Amino acid sequence: MADDSGSRIPVYVRDTLQTLAAVVFVGLLLFALTGVWPPMVAVESGSMEPHIDTGDMVVVSDAGRFSGASADEHGIVTYAESDGYSRFSGKGDVIVYMPPERTGSPIIHRARFYVESGENWYDRAAPDAIAPGIDNCDELTNCPAPNAGYITKGDNVRQYDQARGLARPVKPEWVRAKAQVRVPFLGWVRLAIAGKA
Q1: Which stretches are transmembrane (predicted)?
Q2: Which end of the chain is more exposed for a tag (fewer CB within 10 A), N or C?
Q3: Which pairs with CB-CB distance under 8 Å and at least 24 residues apart come from 143-147?
Q4: Which of 161, 175, 195 is nearest to 77 (CA)?
Q5: pLDDT in tens, 111-120
Q6: Domain covering 36-194 in this structure, CATH number
Q7: Domain boundaries, the chain
């Protein structure tokens, strides 16, 4: 019997190539469904607890995909305009955004309402989402609004991101994605690889 082992691909090479092909296929499928890359983000903080926990992996999509009926022209449904629409047990969309001056990871928080440039948004703010003792727009950080954008807040954070100086109102072009589904604990793998666990 002739030995034809030289013409065959070793089993471990074949298995490795099949595994890589499967990973590429799943990645391409997720990209096709979500419209963004990467289609998943690992959550680094507890600012969205108890709805999204530290170490969760969140599947995200382009802001214009899977929008609710009350979505604005950018595909975002805010807490204020939710009209029964909810994500992650709360009204409105959870967005992943990155202000240009920020270093590090993007922020994943809920879009609360939209403001126009120069708008006094003090009267629209929930009293418990601004610092105690703030009585008017002039005392509130980022009020009047320095630019048009979303006022955002983590579900587990007392104040709006804009009231505590974390970010200016979030311009639609800063929104990288919209959170869709969470996969508990899977993000720890990504955080461990990145040295953030």
Answers
A1: 20-38
A2: N
A3: 144/118, 144/119, 144/120, 145/115, 145/116, 145/117, 145/118, 145/119, 145/121, 145/169, 146/117, 147/117, 147/171
A4: 175
A5: 999 999 999 9
A6: 2.10.109.10
A7: 36-194
